[in-house]
Amino acid sequence: MEGFKKIIWKDISENAVSLIENWMLVAAGKPGNYNMMTANWGTLGWLWGKPVSTIFVRPHRYTHDFTEREDYYTLTFFMEEYREVLELMGDVSGRDFDKINYEGLHPLLTENGSIAFEEAYLIIECKKLFASSIKEEDFVDPKVRSRNYPKKDFHTMYIGEITNIWIKESK
């Protein structure tokens, strides 16, 4: 991946909570048939003896079709100058808006055939290990449920092993 240097998870110098809080794109699919969405719900951590990410995608999101179908997904992180692009990718659906040909993002292909973006400064590629739908009856704190799911449109949770990480090389 031209312009990027491969690193390992221990080399990520940023706080994982801050990374995700400041938004990322979740992408899945193959060249010419992929989708992405802006997200700021998720985690990076350690589980089952592996570095992992956890992402959450609502079933009505177009990206859900791709995360369900594909074995890999990517998390791409951007500098503040791309905030408007991230807002747009969160506001529009790939069903109604041609995200693939949007001029603000240029896709890259990872070693495992996943989609990432040239404009990102950090790319994390993950292999799906686990998927489960969040269920209303599993909430211990009903306030969390009512505040985040007033329409009862519960997310699917995906846990993926972090298989590759790339950071943009300095110019």
Total DSSP E strands: 10
* Chain-averaged pLDDT: 93
Report the helical percentage: 10-25%
Major β-sheet profile: 8 strands, antiparallel
Tell me the structural class.
alpha+beta
Q: What's the helix count?
A: 4
Return the CATH class: Mainly Beta
CATH superfamily: Electron Transport, Fmn-binding Protein, Chain A
What is the CA-based Rg, rounded?
A: 16 Å
Note poorly predicted spans. Answer: none
Return the CATH architecture.
Answer: Roll
In whole angstroms, how far apart are the ends? Answer: 15 Å
Number of domains: 1
| H/E series | EHEEEEHEHEEEHE
CATH fold label: Pnp Oxidase, Chain A
Q: In percent, how much strand structure appears in the residues?
A: 35-45%
What does this structure look like?
- The protein has 171 residues and is α+β, with helices and mostly antiparallel strands.
- The protein contains 4 helices and 10 strands, in the order βαββββαβαβββαβ.
- The two termini are 15 Å apart.
- The mean pLDDT is 93.
